[in-house]
Write a structure and sequence with these properties.
The protein is an alpha/beta fold and 485 residues long. The protein is built from 15 helices and 13 strands. It is globular, with a radius of gyration of 21 Å. It starts with 7 loop residues before the first helix and ends in a 10-residue tail after the last helix.
Length: 485
């Protein structure tokens, strides 16, 4: 049973009907990883021993008649999640040898449900990037065209699902880091509402923007994984206590009568013509299904990128201060003269160029004389962006937009131009600024490369977003198309 050909839901059924064992699924994932990793580089650390041990435990639980939702399902875990006893580097030299003594809460939850960890996936260093090219361990290659990027920062997780080395994957999304790689690689991915899933044990980038989410082939897969990570956590006070919905019960394919908004600002100059064509075709599909299409406006989203690249670096500069080489992480061997010199050398050697760039930007906008001019003003604009979303969701149930302005670009094409790289997030960052739900699902191809359809819903409307995405996947087959590796 090839992992490239089945969904989590189908694997669940096969496991319960004893058509396949969890060990056989794990062995298939490990074998596929050995075959594809030299070309794809989706993983920083493969964990075959852990996977087989967890798979044997899952088979024992299945034999007893247990029915945990993820029992025996091979998952990949982004390398910014702490995993007890397994190296967790966040794709940085500074944490190259770091082995955490505990699991991130979100991972611990899917682990307790019997999931099988195939490995830790590649990411941009400390999740700062849109292509995995800032990873200390080299870029992840797009399974559709290995000369192109898989997206970022969760590029390894998206590529793992598409390459058939896992059935689903955990990721994080601070400005588009789940949705953009899902679009580039041609799988499904969701960024939930900020505060829905605990961030405990996941290495912080920008604490007011970071969200935990997941990848799968279908919205049904996303629903299965997502439900298991939700719930309060006394170590993360930003988590909103909410009743855990049964997402699967709402995947009925019915969107008749729903109001779907098309924000005109997301179809502006710079949008690739073929990408726009695929999105317009998807919108027509929803019309055929009986949804009402409404043009709407989010006027302040044009300021989203500028605002994001003030707020996010400001929070990054604070969060990165903990990596000092004293408590854990890389320590310089270059004979430091004093403590300050030790800090400077350890951090200079341990951090890559993009992390240093964002620390410097963030320190600058928070400094005396510039705080009011930049950071404080950016926070006010963020409120305006959120207000735009609040107002538009009084008129419509969800929004449909392109996930990215173009298909995947070639490795090395944008890396020397930070501003051009930052603009890859132009259609995704505003959802993080507003704290709302965003998902990306496959909706066709442009120049033989996947195109992603972004579905945005109000806060805590994961049920609606998944329902809309699933309805589209019931009448199309783009989510069933995968590259031959």
């Amino acid at each position: 049973m090839k992992l490239t050909e089945i969904t989590i839901a189908e694997a669940q059924k096969a496991l319960r009907e004893k058509k396949i064992s969890a060990v056989e699924l794990a062995e298939e994932a490990i074998c596929q990883a050995e075959k594809t990793e030299p070309k794809i580089n989706a993983f920083v650390t493969l964990t075959p021993e852990v996977a087989l041990m967890q798979a044997r435990e899952a088979d024992a639980r299945l034999k007893k008649g247990e029915d945990a939702p993820l029992l025996g399902i091979p998952l990949a875990v982004k390398d910014c999640f702490c995993t007890k006893g397994v190296r967790s580097t966040n794709s940085s030299h500074i944490l190259e040898k770091f082995v955490p003594p505990y699991d991130a809460t979100s991972y611990a939850r899917v682990k307790s449900e019997g999931s099988v960890m195939i490995g830790k996936t590649n990411t941009d260093e400390f999740t700062m990037g849109s292509s995995t090219e800032t990873s200390y361990f080299g870029p992840t290659h797009n399974p559709w065209d290995i000369e192109r990027v898989a997206g970022g920062s969760s590029g390894g997780s998206a590529a793992s699902v598409v390459a058939g080395t896992s059935l689903g994957a955990l990721g994080t999304d601070t400005g588009g880091s789940i949705r953009q790689p899902a679009a580039f690689c041609g799988c499904s991915g969701i960024k939930p509402t900020y505060g829905l899933i605990p961030r405990t044990g996941v290495m912080s980038m920008a604490s007011s923007l970071d969200t935990i989410g997941c990848f799968g082939k279908t919205c049904e897969d996303l629903a299965i994984i997502l439900k298991e990570m939700i719930g309060p956590d006394n170590k993360d006070m930003t988590v909103t206590s909410t009743k855990i919905p049964n997402y699967l019960a709402h995947l009925d394919g019915n969107v008749a009568g729903m109001k779907i908004g098309i924000p005109k600002e997301f179809f502006a100059e710079g949008l690739d013509a073929e990408v726009e064509k695929r999105i317009r075709e998807a919108i027509k599909e929803f019309e055929k299904m009986g949804a009402e299409i409404v043009e709407v406006s989010l006027p302040h989203t044009k300021y989203a990128i500028a605002t994001y690249y003030i707020i996010a670096p400001a929070e990054i500069s604070s969060n990165m201060a903990r990596y000092d080489g004293i408590r854990y992480g890389h320590k310089t061997d270059d004979n430091p003269e004093n403590l300050l010199d030790f800090y400077e050398k350890s951090r200079s050697e341990g951090f890559g160029a993009e992390v240093k760039r964002r620390i410097m930007i963030g320190t600058y906008v928070l400094s005396a004389g510039y705080y009011d001019a930049y950071y404080k003003k950016a926070q006010k604009v963020r409120t305006l962006i959120r207000n735009d979303y609040d107002q538009v969701f009084k008129k419509v149930d969800v929004l449909l937009t392109p996930t990215t302005p173009t298909p995947s670009f070639k490795i090395g094409e944008n890396i020397s131009d930070p501003l051009k790289m930052y603009l890859n997030d132009i259609l995704t960052v505003s959802a993080n600024m507003a704290g709302v739900v965003g998902a990306s699902i496959p909706c066709g191809f442009a120049n033989n490369l996947p195109v992603g359809l972004q579905i945005i819903g109000p806060q805590f409307a994961e049920t609606t977003v998944l329902k809309v995405g699933d309805a589209y996947q019931k009448v199309t087959d783009f989510h069933k198309q995968f590259p031959k590796l």
